[in-house]
UniProtKB/TrEMBL annotation:
Pfam families the UniProt entry points to: Ammonium_transp
Membrane topology: Multi-pass membrane protein
The organism's place on the tree of life at top rank: Eukaryota
Signal peptide: 1-21
Any GO CC annotation of this UniProt entry: plasma membrane
Transmembrane intervals: 102-124, 136-154, 190-208, 220-241, 253-275, 287-307, 378-395, 407-426, 446-465
Name assigned to this protein: Ammonium transporter
Keywords: Ammonia transport, Coiled coil, Membrane, Signal, Transmembrane, Transmembrane helix, Transport
Cell location: Membrane
A GO MF label: ammonium channel activity
PROSITE patterns: AMMONIUM_TRANSP
Key word Lipoprotein present: no
Residue ranges occupied by any Ammonium transporter AmtB-like domain in the UniProt entry: 100-493
Length: 554
């Protein structure tokens, strides 16, 4: 109505101006009559327009629907897509970036197979080596299928603030001539492959927490749901342009929150829900082969150059600094733990088994945010990590949970320390990408990402483990656990002479499967048999080896 009134007043003013200009002429009377007639027509038009606007419900409904449609448009998403297209246009594909991304993809995949497989395989007991290695290989195969079907789209397609959309399910619209806005200088299939290696290694790290006692089938069921419900939402929220943590400016350079905090916290929940290994606290679980474990950790060490360096997305100065910083921090932590480790100080000796966890823990800490902090902080952060790495070992003995291979002990403290220090010390003046300040520079939001990733991982992992345990059971039976998962789950053994089930092996009422809630009901006869058989056999082999060395020539 206001628009109509203003329109009428405007026309009236034009008429008055025209009359005033020519009012003194011989035809002024005629012009006056024309003006009155024009004003009468204008009043009729105004009445008709007002009647139409107030009585035409169809027009009103159409206007309302149009307003709702405009309000429903994702203007923010459209702007982000336009920005992504502009970045792709400004950055054509680069052969150097493609080469570095290809190398990095291979390096990160090597971290899982064979890196994690050998690292964990050397730390478990001899009767569980093959099952531990099999878990890493099977997880790699399972996650690859899930990634192609749903995972990539849920992580790196635009959608909601937590989950991606469905436009890239089964790798639709992922072609060699397409590029992703997060890595605009390489083909999108290569970006998809690089991110797949991160999705593979994360659940493989969790498997160290429930080593020696979790059944093979339930392991894969848990990992499948964990990938969809834990990894994908955290990755999308943290890395994708429309993720709510990314929009908040929370930094995660190479997976400190997405990979290490989620894997560490989920591993902690696994060790609690699945329960302790039979005999935990009463006998020493000696590593099967420290050499194999060190070789696996070494492969992970080298692979981390692609893990951190490839996360720079370009073959540039940021990638070179990531590689250099990774090497420097690995050496500092590996040496530092030998000096400050609690056991080393008390026993006056440093063992080779202590070096890999320290070095890997430093790489975890570095993964979240070397880029946003000044380089001179790197050495101090690595040395601080050495003291923190001993804390989970003390917590294990204090609270009694059995994190078998220290998945939480390695990745939890490193991820938390990296996130906390980045949250405090991040400085926009020293960053190449995503200039964001930390708490010491007036921006405490960096610390929120740690809490969100930890709480989400713990809560969903706990619920998934309880659900799987309630439906199909998590643990093997106690007698099967003592015999070993190699024979029970896979029907083979590292040493064929031990592959036959002994005739005097005592059976339990839980043979076949055992729910985690019942595992505390230990069968002492089986434990005594295990101690007498394996420990006695070890003593006989040691005596035989000692005699052979004594009789050797020279």
């Amino acid at each position: 109505m206001k628009i109509c009134s203003l329109h009428l007043l405007g026309l009236l003013a034009m008429v008055l101006v025209s009359v005033c200009a020519d009012g003194q002429g011989p035809n002024s009377k005629l012009r006056m009559e024309k003006m009155e007639a024009r004003m009468a027509r204008m009043e009729e038009m105004q009445k008709h327009l007002l009647t139409t606007l107030t009585q035409n419900e169809e027009l009103t409904n159409r206007v309302t629907a149009l307003e709702q449609q405009i309000a429903a448009w994702n203007i923010g998403g459209i702007v982000k897509n336009i920005t992504a297209i502009e970045s792709i246009i400004k950055r054509p594909t680069n052969d150097g970036d493609i080469s570095w991304k290809l190398i990095s993809s291979g390096l990160v995949l090597m971290m899982t197979i064979p890196g994690v497989a050998l690292f964990y395989g050397g730390l478990v007991r001899v009767q569980n080596v093959l099952s531990t290695v099999m878990q890493s290989f099977s997880i790699a195969c399972l996650v690859t299928i899930l990634w192609a079907a749903f995972g990539y789209s849920l992580c790196f397609d635009t959608g909601s603030p937590v989950f991606g959309g469905a436009k890239k399910f089964w790798l639709q619209n992922v072609y060699g001539n397409h590029r992703h806005p997060l890595s605009p200088t390489v083909p999108e299939p290569l970006f998809c492959m690089f991110e797949l290696t991160f999705a593979i290694i994360t659940p493989a790290l969790i498997s160290g927490s429930f080593a020696d006692r979790m059944r093979f089938g339930p392991t894969l069921v848990f990992i499948a749901f964990w990938h969809i419900l834990v990894y994908c939402p955290i990755a999308h929220s943290m890395w994708m342009t429309d993720g709510f943590l990314h929009e908040a400016g929370i930094l995660d350079f190479a997976g400190g929150n997405v990979v290490h905090i989620s894997a560490g916290c989920s591993g902690l929940m696994s060790s609690i829900v699945v329960g302790k290994r039979t005999g935990y606290g009463r006998e020493q679980f000696q590593p099967h082969n420290i050499l194999i474990s060190v070789l696996g950790a070494s492969l992970m060490w080298v692979g981390w150059f692609g893990f951190n360096g490839g996360s720079a997305e370009y073959a540039n100065g940021q990638a070179t600094m990531a590689v250099l910083n990774s090497q420097a921090r690995e050496d500092c932590s590996g040496y530092g733990l030998s000096v400050v480790d609690v056991d080393g100080v008390e026993d006056k000796e440093a063992t080779e088994a202590e070096h890999p966890p320290a070095s890997l823990g430093s790489l975890v800490e570095r993964s979240l945010g070397w880029s946003p902090s000044p380089q001179e902080q790197g050495i101090a952060r690595s040395l601080a990590l050495c003291a923190i790495l001993t804390l989970p070992l003390q917590l294990k003995s204090r609270f009694g949970y059995d994190d078998a291979l220290d998945a939480f002990g390695i990745h939890g403290p490193g991820g938390f320390l990296g996130g906390i220090l980045t949250g405090f010390f991040a400085n926009a003046n020293v960053q190449i990408l995503s200039p964001v300040n930390g708490a010491f520079y007036g921006n405490p939001k960096q610390l929120y990402g740690i809490a969100i990733a930890a709480v989400w991982s713990c809560a969903i992992s706990f619920l998934l483990l309880k659900l799987v345990d309630y439906t199909i059971g998590l643990r093997v039976a106690i007698d099967e656990e003592l015999l070993g998962l190699d024979m029970v789950c896979h029907g083979e053994s590292m040493f064929p002479q031990r592959s036959a089930v002994p005739s005097d092996w005592p059976k339990s009422e839980y043979s076949g499967s055992l729910r985690a809630e019942n595992f505390n009901e230990t069968i002492r006869g089986q434990q005594d048999w295990h101690d007498a058989t394996f420990h006695g056999e070890g003593e006989e082999q040691e005596a035989e080896l000692t005699g052979s060395l004594a009789n050797a020539p020279g």
